[in-house]
Amino acid sequence: MLPLKDNVPTRTTPYVTIGLIVANFVVWFWELGGRGVDYHVFEDGFYPCTLHGPCHVPAPIVIHPLPWYEGVFSGMFMHASWQHILGNMLFLWIFGNNVEDALGRVRFLVWYLAAGLAATALQTFVTLHYSTAEGASVPNVGASGAIAGVLGAYFLLLPTAMVLTLVGFFVLPLPAFLFLGFWFVLQLWEGGFAVTHPAAGGGVAFFAHVGGFLFGAATVYLVAKDPPLRRYR
């Protein structure tokens, strides 16, 4: 299922959401224009093994992983493919503007970064406790953990909003609670297969998605300033 748009307006222009999208694309083009995407993913991604080593990075180049406190932020703005970044930015654009509208710009930015940290924390915990040293040496990159926080917040703030969704060859309006609920259950299901074999999920950090979503749902009412608009268009 691919979201195309929702039907909820915003009070103001979502400058932070737009800025985050721009920042992610700037980093992406830096990856493309530098020494290549693969090099930068291995060199600048976040490695769970930097919290509890040793690291065994199976790369054709000599890698010295960044300290965890640097890699956790650099990895949050990096992506591994065009499909990766385009999918993430689509989700951020559709759902981020309304969550920003409810939280306010500065609060949303800080909360978004915190969601990314929470997402990384859960994925790291699962990897270090249930995977191997090789699994802990797989670099984690992508904004999807932080964006999952946005989805968790949207799930509670606007459960009955309609999300125009591409399902196979059909475009259907689905209520947000159904679309996002299915997405969350899918992350739990797929994550069960990827705990001990990271490659089984195509390198997707499913528990980062779970952690981000739970963080967003658990904290959104603590930080929201205004309820989102419900005057659906």
Total helices: the number is 8
Our estimate of the beta-strand percent is 5-15%
Count of beta strands: 3
Choose one word for the global shape: globular
Query: What is the H/E order?
Result: EHHHHHHEEHH
Mean pLDDT: 89
Largest sheet: 3 strands, antiparallel
| Helix-residue proportion | 55-70%
Termini gap: 22 Å
Stretches where pLDDT is under 50 for at least 5 consecutive residues are: 198-202
Counting helices, strands and paired strands, the structural category is mainly alpha
Give me the side-by-side strand order of the main sheet: 1-2-3
> Which value, in Å, is the CA radius of gyration?
17 Å
Question: What do these coordinates show?
Answer:
By secondary structure, the protein is mainly α. A three-stranded antiparallel sheet has the order 1-2-3. The longest helix is centred in the middle third of the chain and has 26 residues. The radius of gyration is 17 Å and the shape is globular. About 2% of the residues have low confidence.
Condensed summary:
The chain is mainly alpha-helical and about 230 residues long. Helix content is about 55%, strand content about 5%. It has eight helices and three strands; from the N terminus they run βααααααββαα.
Keywords, separated by commas or semicolons:
8 helices; three-stranded antiparallel sheet; mainly alpha; 233 residues; 3 strands
